[in-house]
Amino acid sequence: RLQSCAPSRVVIVASRAHWAGRLHPDTLGRPPPGPLSTFQDYCDSKLANVLHARELATRLEGTQVTCYAVHPGFVNTELFRHTPLWLKPLFLPLVWLFFRDAAEGAQTCLHCATQEGLERFSGRYFADCRLQEPW
């Protein structure tokens, strides 16, 4: 469908947390061991998102469907909902002080979805409405 109504764009929400991601195909679908396994799962999934954007762009080359991986910033969402109760008092004050609200977090996604002239950057990674090099 995206090709039939081209030009079209795919925006994949990744995160700077991809830097701590590890992909081990033999253990996909099983949680990593350790006390920070939820965070590791998050990082692994964001690395997969960055790589997915690159692969999808490669597969869609020449179709007028472009693809972008986006770091929206640290956004005050339900990101820490699965954090152990004892860790929440450490994280929640930081969230309220330093994280973006949802409207601010949407800016880079909207930029990649609507900004003209980004087609040549298909498969690339964006943060703060700018092209960035992923880890």
Verbal overview:
The chain has 135 residues and is an alpha/beta fold. The protein has one domain (2-131): NAD(P)-binding Rossmann-like Domain (Rossmann fold, 3-Layer(aba) Sandwich), CATH 3.40.50.720. Helices cover 34% and strands 14% of the residues. It is built from four helices and four strands. It has a four-stranded mixed sheet, with helices on both faces. Strand 1 (8-13), helix 1 and strand 2 (65-71) form a beta-alpha-beta unit. 20% of the residues are buried.
Outline of this structure?
The protein is of the alpha/beta class and 135 residues long. 34% of the residues lie in helices and 14% in strands. It has one domain: NAD(P)-binding Rossmann-like Domain (Rossmann fold, 3-Layer(aba) Sandwich).
What's the alpha carbon Rg, rounded to whole Å?
A: 16 Å
Classified by CATH, the class is: Alpha Beta
Number of domains: 1
Integer average pLDDT: 88
Estimate percent helicity: 25-40%
Strand order of the largest sheet: 1-2-3-4
Number of strands: 4
Beta-strand proportion = 5-15%
Largest sheet: 4 strands, mixed
For CATH, the homologous superfamily is named as NAD(P)-binding Rossmann-like Domain
Give start-end ranges of low-pLDDT stretches. none
In DSSP terms (H or I, runs of 4 or more residues), the helix count works out at 4
CATH topology-level name:
Rossmann fold
- Element pattern in H and E: EHEHHHEE
- Secondary structural class: alpha/beta
Name the CATH architecture: 3-Layer(aba) Sandwich
Shape call: globular
N/C terminus separation: 32 Å
Protein name: Dehydrogenase/reductase SDR family member 13
Keywords: Oxidoreductase
GO molecular function: oxidoreductase activity
Family: Belongs to the short-chain dehydrogenases/reductases (SDR) family.
